[in-house]
Amino acid sequence: MNSKITSPTETQNRKADHLRVCLEESVQFQQTTGLERYRFTHCCLPELDWNEIDISTSFLGKQLGAPLLISSMTGGTEFAGIINQRLAKVAQKYKLAMGVGSQRVAVENPEVGGTFAVRSLAPDILLFANLGAVQLNYQYGLDQCLRAIDLLQADALILHLNPLQESVQTKGDKNFRGLLDKIAILCMKLPVPVIAKEVGNGISATMAEKLIDAGVAAIDVAGAGGTSWAKVESERAKDPMQQRLGATFADWGIPTAECITNVRAIAPNIPLIASGGLRNGLEVGKAIALGADIAGLALPFLQAAAESEAALDTLVEMLVAEITTVLFCTGNGTLSDLKHSLALQKLA
Q1: C-alpha–C-alpha distance, residues 296 and 277, integer Å
Q2: What pLDDT, on the 0 to 100 scale, is given for residue 177?
Q3: In this structure, how many other beta carbons lie within 10 angstroms of the beta carbon of residue 82?
């Protein structure tokens, strides 16, 4: 097992940097999600009442008001704590799922645990704890995972997979050897489901199959097309090599649409989250039609949460209206109807 000491202050500073860079710098992929290559066939006579369309769903045993996940983003600083509190309140209000950012900083420095602990504000939501899978090679194990879960009273644990980010990050954790077996052991021992999630470079069908065989209960593809964490780390890097690495691999990854279709093809029944560059309800609708069960958005929620609770309400209401309009204008009354329809066509 590797031994590596990172000070709590260093980890907190990295969290603050990540928030600042994502909000202030140009760190989006130049390549797209691939969703623009699909178009819905418009239904001019849907034979539906818009007000009766049902966009509710269930995921991992909990009911959601809409097929939306507030994707894992932040924690560990005062500003991050404010953002997580605002996100939790809106998730509770609209029955959305929510993930927090990596809890490594809270495991190593319990004093900042409150910046993640939002269950009191959102007692009913589907809430995901989050740790980097690679930490299993750096003195993390069952105990640390349980602490992350208990801190949130979480319904599931996200293990995020980020080899490119670690490669670009100064002092990144780069030993990914043997992780699959360690993930399999965790899946057997943890009291909650494990979700495997990339951070914006995508999960291939081959890797999804291996993760599912290891016992992972759900997949979040987190494909390319949104925030590039190679760019984020390049922006905050101090040494020229890491800056160049981030620039070189800024657009590395599998587009989100490709991830969804390829993973769904080999795993028809796995609970599947589509994320990676989704920015509106039309793209959520496309992701659902391609086979995802719910869709995760990060940057839109981060930007709104940084502004105000009112901005978050406006964002969610717009997303709900956009998803509802997709169903209405394709002649589908429910998300299940949309998923099983032939309304989405790939452009030539």
Answers
A1: 9
A2: 98
A3: 14
